[in-house]
Design a protein that fits this description.
263 residues; alpha+beta; 2 domains; 5-stranded antiparallel beta sheet; rod-shaped
């Protein structure tokens, strides 16, 4: 289209020049007139060619510029599409990571909630009756020895072990314990109530005289934590031979205890 415009412009310009020459030139000889006309036409053709060249160069420059702009446009388009894809991918990754982190935190919270619910139920649980009583010591008292009462009279809650003489607290709370010893005359034994291997009451059996035996009862109360143990331990024994008297029908050596209140 640009080329057609150029040709039309050139033809129009030539016609105008010829018209101008015919009108404005003075009347001379035919030869002189033709010479001048030819000269003007040559100069005009040279000018037209120069104009055509300049127009062609401008057209080529415009075409090149348009091509460069199209190339740059395509490059920007590809860049924007790449950035868009990268942004979407990065956003998807960030969202997935956030979802994973939130799920992990929810799992931790669920586990923590389960643990607290379990502990709450444990705390709200009404303790069962804990009560025990045992008799018949397994051995004669000796220094450093745990007294083992081998015959169960009562063991509500199964907290007393007749094999080792140890009571294990099923709940944290207040407990009371009683021990009774029936000693022969002239015998002396020091002992202690032990909670988790620490004494919470110490006492002594001492029978004076040379005949008959006597029974002595000792009470103690303390706070025991869950799964801690309580037992009767001999601290020292200054007498030899048989110390305790046991009669199945009349006189018992006993160890008993009961749960009073939860803490």
């Amino acid at each position: 289209m640009l080329k057609m415009f150029t040709n039309v412009f050139t033809a129009s310009f030539i016609v105008l020049v010829i018209f101008h020459i015919c009108v404005s030139e003075p009347h001379c000889s035919k030869f002189h007139y033709e010479e001048k006309l030819l000269e003007k036409m040559i100069r005009l053709e040279i000018s037209v060619e120069a104009m055509k060249k300049e127009i062609e160069e401008s057209r080529n420059q415009v075409t090149t510029t348009l091509g460069n702009l199209q190339t740059e446009r395509n490059t920007w388009k590809e860049t924007l599409l790449t950035m868009k894809d990268a942004s979407i991918t990065g956003l998807d990754t960030a969202i997935q990571e956030a979802k994973t982190q939130v799920q992990e935190e929810l799992n931790v919270l669920a586990a923590e909630k389960e643990r607290w619910n379990k502990e709450l139920k444990e705390c709200e649980k009404i303790p069962e009756v804990v009560l025990f009583s045992a008799r018949l010591p397994k051995q004669t008292p000796a220094s450093g020895q745990t007294m083992v009462f081998t015959e169960i009279i009562l063991n509500k809650g199964d907290a007393y072990n007749k094999e080792n003489g140890v009571f294990t607290a099923p709940y944290t709370g207040v407990y009371t314990f009683t021990v009774q010893f029936c000693a022969y005359p002239g015998k002396l034994v020091d002992f202690a109530f032990m909670a988790n291997d620490k004494p919470f009451k110490k006492s002594r059996i001492q029978k004076h005289g040379t005949s008959y035996f006597s029974c002595y009862s000792f009470d103690a109360m303390t706070i025991v934590n869950k799964n801690e143990n309580v037992k009767i331990k001999i601290i020292s024994c200054s007498s030899s031979g048989t110390i305790l008297h046991e009669s199945g029908s009349n006189y018992w050596n006993t160890f008993s205890g009961s749960f009073i209140q939860a803490l």
